[in-house]
Structure formats: structure tokens, C-alpha cells
Structure of hydroxymethylglutaryl-CoA lyase:
Amino acid sequence: MPSSVTVYEVGPRDGLQNEPKSIRTDVKVTLINMLTDAGFKAIEATSFVSPKWVPQLGDAKDVMARVRRAPGVQYPVLTPNMQGLTGALASGCREVAVFAAASEAFSKRNINCTVEESLKRFEAVVTAARKEGVAVRGYVSCAVGCPYQGAVEPEAAAAVGAALHGMGCYEVSMADTIGVGTPASMERMLQATLRQVPASALAVHCHDTYGMAIANIASALRMGISVIDSSVAGLGGCPYARGATGNVATEDVLYLLDGYGIRHGIDMDAVLRASEYISGALGRPNGSRVARALLAR
Ligand code: HMG
Ligand code: MG
């Protein structure tokens, strides 16, 4: 078990990208600012992707212009290609993320190219970003299961993770995009990946569709993974992964970490304020079971 963990907050990006109703830019900015106040060191803020593919994040430039950036905090954004990187650099972003998949079918639906084509594209993005001193994170979507192809071989996920790490991603987040994983499949996938990428360069990104995310994260912690992606109030889902629900809720992850006595540096009360704020703005009940329990006390 690691003694301390980085909780990588993806709510403003992964959490909001799939919302059907348009969310005002100032709501996104307020959410990010509240998350900054809660003590996160990494808050994935938005995506520089095609607004035709993800209309909800079409205001990426405005979000990045208006958000308050605290020293020592990263505000990474997704950049699927050079056009995205150019936009991100122009907005002063100092960390970006590229996102590949362990499944061909998902790659086609999500970014309109094969896995091999995407890796070539990302290599150019990573090289250009690093030349500017900008750090690049990588994602491997569908690392344990794909909405179109079903189960995914651990070696397939490991190979894509190794390719991203090899091209210069400082960290690779292994994602259970549709939340179908169990501790067993998660462990098999991580075992295969750890043969090629060190634990210090790996994160896990669990969606909670089947309610397994916290168990999967506990397994990953036991395997030495010390960066956990999560989303305030359990917001989220991927527009190109039908039926996938939100990411694991940040509050639930913090409660898990507190139970193990693992340091995380996040102020739970401040997260709860952000969580209630965004749930209210979206007009829905808080999606975190831990938040609901703590707020009911
Ligand atoms: P494409 O249609 O093949 O792109 O889409 P293209 O290069 O042929 O360009 C077509 C049009 O898009 C052009 O505009 C470009 O200018 C524009 P037009 O001439 O038609 O007016 N365009 C862009 N506009 C703004 N920013 C850009 C950009 N690039 C092209 N960067 C593309 C390919 C990758 C762009 C598209 O498929 C796309 O944007 N996909 C993004 C999908 C996405 O964001 N999915 C959700 C995030 S991934 C995720 O949630 C998983 C994750 O959470 C981990 C997990 O859980 O698995 C990370
Ligand atoms: Mg995701």
C-alpha cells in the first residue's frame, strides 16, 4: 500500500462532457475554483476536442481564460491531436492528456481512427508538447472491457500503456471506461501492465457502472498504484461509451483512503461543498454515497 496518494480530479472534464443540457461557463469555472480550494494538485479542467463531437466542452478556451490557477496545481486538458494541443498551448495550459484505447472499435467511435493511427498522432502531440515543457499524461480506455468488443485482453491494454509511456507520457491512466471491471480483471490487467510500466508511472481511472469501482481501486492500491482518478459527486460518463455511468466519486475514494490511513491532502468538507454546488447546478441528487451519508449527519 502506498503511504500517500494523489487524487486526480476529473469531474470538470469527464464529469461534465456527457451532460445533455448546456452548462454555463461560469458554473464550470466556479466548480474548478472550488476544487482548487479543496486542495487537489491536479484538476482535469476541460478538453480541446472537436465541439461537434463533444459540444458540452466547446467553451474550453473561455474556461481556461477564466479559471483561477493556483500555484502548484495542474489544470490538465485533453488534446486528441495537434489542433487540440495548439489550442491548449494558446490557453496557457502546462499539462495535457492524450487518450488511446485498448480496443479498436472504441478507438474508431471515440476519436475516429485506429489504435495504431492514434498512437502515431499522439507521438507528434507528445513530442511537440514536451518541446514546450508541457507534461503529457496518457489514458488507455477500455483497459478491461469495451462496450463494442466485450472483454479486453490484459496484454492488449498493457501494450497500449507501454506505447504511451514509451513515447514520453509521464503517467498512464488505465481506464475502466464502462465500469465493467472487477478486482479480478483489474488485477490481471495491472499485472500485465506492471511488467512493462513501473507502478510510479501508472494511475487507475474507474467508472462505477457496476458498483465495483471502490473494490477495483482497493486492488490497485494493494498493487502499489498511487494515483487515483475520480470525479466529484460521481459525475460523468463517456459520450462514446453507451450506458457507462459516472466516474468513481471523489468523496468515496477519500473515505476509502482515510480508512487505510493513506494521506491525500484533500479537505473533505470543501469537496462536499463543491459536490453540493455542482449537483444543485445540474438539478440532480448527489451521486456520491459517501457525500450523501456525510451530509445527512
Ligand atoms: P475527425 O472528424 O476525424 O477530425 O475527429 P478531423 O481532423 O477530420 O477534423 C474534422 C473537424 O473537426 C474539422 O472542422 C476540424 O477543424 C475539427 P471542420 O473543418 O469540419 O469545421 N477539429 C477540431 N476542433 C477543435 N479541436 C480539435 C479538433 N480536431 C479537429 N482538437 C477528433 C477526430 C479526434 C477531433 C474527434 O473524434 C474528437 O474530438 N473526439 C473527442 C472525443 C472525446 O472527447 N471523447 C471523450 C473523452 S475520452 C474519455 O472520456 C475517456 C477517458 O475518460 C478515459 C476512460 O474513461 O476511458 C479519458
Ligand atoms: Mg473516463
Notes: The domain at 6-287 is CATH 3.20.20.70 (TIM Barrel). The pocket of 3-hydroxy-3-methylglutaryl-coenzyme A (ligand 1) is lined by residues 14, 17, 47-50, 53-54, 78, 80-81, 83-84, 87, 99, 110-112, 139, 141, 175, 177, 205, 207, 238-240 (CB under 6 Å). The first strand starts at residue 6 and ends at 9.
